Amino acid sequence: MGKILSIASKEIKTAFKDKAFLAVALLFLLLSILSVYIGSATKNAEITAYQDIVNLLKSQGATSIPAEPKIFPLSILKNIINYVAVIGSIVAIFLGFNSFSEEREEGTIKLLLSRPIYRDQLINGKLFGGAFVIAGLLIITLVFNCFLFTVVSGMNINFAEFSRLTVFFVFAFYYMISFYLASLFVSLKSQNSTFAFLLMLIIWMGVSYVIPQLAESQKNYVYVLNNISQTMNQMPQDTLISKTIEIFSPTVQFKNIGRDLLQVVPEHAQLSLFTLLKLNLRSIIYLLVPGLFMLFGSYNSFLKEGN
Amino acid sequence: MLVINSLTKNYDGFTAVDNLSFKVGEGEIFGFLGHNRAGKTTTISMLVSLIRPSSGSAEIAGYDVVKDNLKVRSMLGYLPENVNLYSNLTAFENLYFFGSLSGVENVEKRINEVLKDLEMNSWKDTKVREFSKGMRQRIGIAQALLHKPRILFLDEPTSGLDPQGTKSIRDLLLYINNKWNTTIFLNTHLLSEVKKICSSIGIISHGQLLMTDSLINIKKKFGSEKSLEDIYFRIEGDQNNGENTVYSI
Predict the structure, then answer these.
(1) Chain B contacts of A2, Cβ < 8 Å?
(2) Closest residue of A to B68, CA-based?
(3) Which residues cross the membrane (chain A) (predicted)?
């Protein structure tokens, strides 16, 4: 365990000395803070607008007052879903793309492997280091968000909402780790850090934009078909094809789970955490699989190299 | 200290190292001589357990490099060719990391000892990227010495260094060998280097060992008037002419 921790601690030290990584991590932090501020300000504006309307109606002698809009506190944080999905994955890529390829380029991999350590200890150390950095970043984000949320919106979250928020951050962690693992795998397979980075960018674009857009275009296609054939109520908008396409995008799965956890979907906003997780079981599985696949791939590839 | 027996490495039909057998005694500085792509680095990679031999075996202090690879790696120091270390970290941070991986007790104290020996103490808090190539090599050697290895494997340690840097590394190797009686296995293609510091040599060409002996015996065998350079080219020439003579005692 001592050697794994030594490798992990070196990874953490190197990450915090890497200016490119620091810049992206800082961007992630700033955007997440901004998202709380914007979310809170929007909700406050909605409440003020409602109060103005109520006052106006009352001054005109109206007896029927529209119901107060239901505000789900966590929905204020909804923008963070996109920031984790886009910038969070980039942070993970920056952290992992050169973890092995740079060791090869600089020749340090030979120094590492000539030490009395097992190959899997090296992967575990790197994984621990990356996980620690990602977890640290998310914990800072969570603490900042909770603090800002209370200060800016003036609202408090109850235990159930805090549990949802914590579980959201657990999924955010896993989502980012999946990208880290993918970068680790690509880095293991390539001799060159630039190539590894470019390949990861292509994968990131495919997973975060191309696949979701393909699925979306499929939905639109069916929507147009339904309109023409007047079968709006007979054919579901979400077709089997678009759902199948979405399986290949952890970003879509993460966003689905995130929207439910952060009370963005009003129908699911008051469900218990357990029910919510059960409801999202399929998305959770689709989110878990790529990361596990990459983890297995990295072990397999690196251990085979030693033979 | 080092016993190599029919060591062979094949890569998809290409034989990089072919049936190598020789011994290196304790406290020797052994020069492993050969032109580029002769099979020197592949040999060293097998000896430090980076790659597995296709056949044959090698033992370091009685331990097999494949079966007892962890034990073997704990008693050897290794400096590959053109290693840059972690350029974002300081010399101390680099050494601390490698020392911890080697299981060195009281790493900090040991780093200070080694850096003092290598006259690099005042540079320990400087980032490695600010070092010259020669200084980097010294830190590279320092990392290889941290766990007091019994044998040191160095792959072209003076490659790319200026004459001053080359001399300084050469002096350092002699110092290490004298002070701790560390066996040194030196991969090189520089005859001048071998002549100045090695007690015995092996010559490899196209993966085959052409000769292995002490420098004194070689001089005796080929006539003391001949330079090492002449001897080297004669042996290489014999192989190129199809005479696969293996010169050894």
Answers:
(1) 100, 103
(2) A116
(3) 20-38, 80-100, 127-153, 165-188, 195-215, 284-303
Domain ranges across chain A: 2-305
Architecture of domain B75-184+191-198: 3-Layer(aba) Sandwich (3.40)
The C-alpha of A160 sits at a distance from chain B's nearest C-alpha, in angstroms, of 44
**What does A216-247 look like in DSSP terms, one character per residue?**
HHHHHHHHHHHHHHT-TTTS-SS-HHHHHHHH
Q: Pick out chain A residues at pLDDT < 70.
A: 223, 225-227, 229-238, 306-307
Give the pLDDT score at B245. Answer: 47
Q: What is the dihedral of CA A214, A217, A221, A227, to 10 degrees?
A: 150
Tens of pLDDT, residue by residue over A10-53, are 999 999 988 989 999 999 989 888 888 888 888 888 888 888 98
**What tokens does A91 get?**
């942070």
Substitution target in A114, A119, A126, A302 with the highest count of B β-carbons within 10 Å is A114
A107·B74 Cβ contact <8 A = no
For the segment B98-125, what is each residue's pLDDT rounded down to a tens digit?
999 998 989 999 999 889 888 888 898 9
**Which of A10, A115, A118 to probe the B interface (max B CBs under 10 A)?**
A115
Could you tell me if A142 and A166 are in contact, meaning their C-beta atoms sit under 8 angstroms apart? yes
Of residues B85, B13, B80, the one with CA closest to residue B47: B80
**Rounded distance, CA A175 to CA A57, Å?**
48
In chain B, what residues touch A14 (CB-CB under 8 Å)? 86, 88-89
Which residues, other chains included, contact A11 with Cβ-Cβ below 8 Å and sequence gap of 6+? A99, A125, A126, A128, A129, A130, A133
- Asked if residue B31 lies in contact with residue B188, where contact means CB atoms within 8 angstroms, the answer is yes
pTM metric for this prediction: 0.86
pLDDT in tens, A97-122: 988 999 999 889 999 999 999 999 99
Q: Give A-chain residues touching B50 at CB under 8 angstroms.
A: 110, 113-114
Closest to B83 (Cβ–Cβ): which among A108, A117, A306? A108
Token readout for A160 is 């159930």
Nearest CA to A180 out of A62, A91, A273 is that of A91
d(CA A256, CA A246): 11
Nearest CB among A18, A111, A306 relative to B80 is that of A111
Select the residue from A103, A111, A118, A120 to test the B interface by mutation, using most B Cβ atoms within 10 A: A111
Query: Residue B246: its pLDDT value, please?
Result: 44
* Alpha-carbon span B182 to A263, nearest angstrom: 67
The answer to whether A110 contacts B71, with C-beta atoms less than 8 Å apart, is no
Closest CA to B166 of B143, B140, B138: B138
Which tokens hold the place of B83? 């290693």
DSSP B176-231: HHHHH--EEEEEES-HHHHHHH-SEEEEEETTEEEEEEEHHHHHHHH-TTS-HHHH
Report, as an integer, the average pLDDT of B238-243: 57
